Amino acid sequence: MSQAPFDRALLPPSTMNAALDEELRALETAGLKRALRQVQQRRAGTLLLGGERVADFASNDYLGLASDPRVARAAHAVLQAEGTGAGAARLISGNFPIHEALEHTLARLKGCDYTLHFPSGYMVNVGAIPALADRGDVIFSDELNHASLIDGCRLSRATVRVFPHNDLDALERMLVTERGSYRRALIVVEGVFSMDGDLCPLDRLVPLARAHRAWTYVDDAHGTGVLGATGAGSLEHFGVSGDVDVVVGTLGKALGTAGAYVGGSQELVEFLVSRARSFIFTTGSPPALAAATLEALRIAQVEGWRRDSVRERSRRLRSRLADAGFTVTGPEDGHVIPLVIGDPGRTMAAVADLRRRGFLVGGVRPPTVPAGTSRLRISMSAVHPMELVDGLAATLIDVLRRH
After folding, report:
1. Helix (H/G/I), strand (E/B), else coil: 336
2. Which of these, 84, 126, 123, 119, lies nearest to 102 by C-alpha position?
3. In the β-sheet with 114-118, what is the strand arrangement from edge to edge?
4. Ranges of each domain in the chain
5. Which residues does 368 contact at the CB level (< 8 Å), separation at least 6?
6. CA separation (Å) from 125 to 173, 223, 262?
7. Cα Rg of the chain (Å, integer)
8. Tell me, what's the pLDDT at 10?
9. Cis link prior to 367 (omega < 30° from 0)?
10. Residues labelled as active-site residues
11. What pLDDT score does 40 carry?
């Protein structure tokens, strides 16, 4: 039976564009509309932006490995041998030996039995948390957790209880009164909080969790590569490597590539292979990226000066700002430096002012941070020349006084 040709003229007009345009105008009025910027040629703590080279204090390239030619060469070699993509989900035919080599290397770094590689950190958190907690369970989540952690908690269908940021006394009171009402309890935190730069006191969290039969879930995206004697991250920094039930991290920050991992016991990884939907139902990461990450891990381990360098530069900028009378939170050598302005419009005006003077910094507004806490987010890199750090300090002090 033949079908009559589709007549587009009979369709009523779509109302979508008008509705979205109205919402976009509302976002713009509130100072919350976002737009992409095109960047090129990242090198030595700088990048090309609109044809002009600017100092980059907005990226998470903490060790300066994102443009390291050795990492690129490692990717190129496997790209030539294996092609551009994994071709399938890893449970089908997309699991390559180099994926497993990367997982073994990450497990040694993080002090856990096994790790499982995912294409992105967001996919880890929205896959692992719902796999571990369901109806009848409870999740205790720090109020300043990353959006991916929040979304993972929401998807889990567990009861979610939010505790004040880094307030372990409040968390303990919640555990005492509520833990007994649920089958499982999961405590979800960040090792280094991405927008505030402060650390969760894991040496206090782990024994607290164990005392109340709660599992610990630590997203160490911003600690891996920088914190700890060997750069293993916040768990090494606090001496709890191997004691956290679930450790998560990304490969696109200090290691300069892309992808993520979740680590813990053999039982945990085997369970997630069967239950984490964002792992099961997605194509595996390109083998070339795994090769690049293995090389980045090697460099990060043998070139410890990179960790020392990023800490030294962080201390210097923090000291200059504090001497000028500005409140700077977080550890004295913390590589994520937030400067709260409050109003999103004034925050973005400060970002634009800094950009005109040759410095790119992050402008962070709701919903990334709570209302009233819009801020400049400055991130330090091992490859920032010290004169660039001093130039940023002087420029920041002038811009902050204006805005």
Report:
1. strand
2. 119
3. 114-118, 260-264, 246-250, 215-219, 185-190, 138-142, 159-163
4. 33-62+304-402, 69-302
5. 147, 195
6. 26, 16, 9
7. 23
8. 81
9. yes
10. 60, 146, 190, 194, 219, 222, 253
11. 83
Start-to-end Cα distance in the chain: 70
By the 8 A CB rule, do 134 and 182 touch? no
Q: How far apart are CA 211 and CA 340, in angstroms?
A: 36
Residue 2 has pLDDT above 70, yes or no: no
Residue 51, token pair as written in the block: 């044809």
Whether the Cβ atoms of residue 366 and residue 399 lie closer than 8 Å to each other: no
- The answer, as to whether pTM is greater than 0.85, is yes
Q: Encode pLDDT of 87-126 as tens digits.
A: 999 999 999 999 999 999 999 999 999 999 999 999 999 9
Residue 1 pLDDT more than 70?
no
The better pLDDT of the pair 327, 72 is held by: 72
Helices (H), 12-120: 16-29, 69-82, 97-110
Cα-Cα-Cα-Cα torsion 274, 146, 230, 300, nearest 10 degrees, comes to 90
Q: Which residue has the tokens 């205790």?
A: 140
| Fold assignment, 69-302 | Aspartate Aminotransferase; domain 2 (3.40.640)
Q: Is the pLDDT of residue 184 over 90?
A: yes
Query: Tell me: domain 33-62+304-402, CATH 3.90.1150.10, correct?
Result: yes
Query: What are the angstrom distances between the C-alpha of 244 and each of 93, 113, 262, 270?
Result: 32, 12, 12, 17
Cβ neighbours of residue 138 closer than 8 Å, sequence gap 6 or more: 158, 159, 160, 161, 178, 179, 181, 182, 184, 185, 186
Mean pLDDT of the chain: 94
> Is residue 320 within 8 Å of 393, Cβ to Cβ?
yes
Q: Is the distance from CB of 329 to CB of 377 less than 8 angstroms? A: no
AA identity, residue 49: L
